[in-house]
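User: My collaborator sent over this chain with a note saying "see what the structure looks like." That's all I know about it. Can you take a look?
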Amino acid sequence: MLLFSQITKISRSCIAIFAVLFLSACQFQPLYGERTPGQGGGLEQVGVASVDSRVGQQVRNHLLFLLNGGFASSEKTHEARLRVSYNNILSASLPSVADSTAGTVTVNVSYDLVDLATNEIIASGSRDATASYDRTGQVLANNRATRDAENRAAKEAAEVLRLAIASHISKL
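Assistant: Without extra context I'll predict from the sequence alone. Here is the result:
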């Protein structure tokens, strides 16, 4: 019994030492710069130009929140100019079904990242996002399901767009 208690004390000590050494290597730091207002050089200095569609506005609003976390910065050094298009594809899962039973919304966002000091395009690209939804025999439920799928796809497109912009800004 005495030998067993000594072994468990030694194993507990080894686990404690290992945990301290392992956890001391862990550090928390922001992935793409500071998220506090007033700190320059980060994503909060990227503005987003106006868009002209409801889905485009969903992308823009979520992207603005992702870029500056809800803080308004008056000094913008760059601007993302977005062109948003979306497509709704209806499909039937069974050949015997007369109405479509599923749908897929695809949101495509093309962007130009512009340096506002020189008005030059420093980066451009395109990102896609999709969201699926189920259809029923109810018209209002189908309309709401389509709108929810558009919102989900727009949110996903904004998230991948933020990563692309962050990559371009980090290289400057």
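A starting point for your reply to your collaborator: The longest helix spans residues 139-170.
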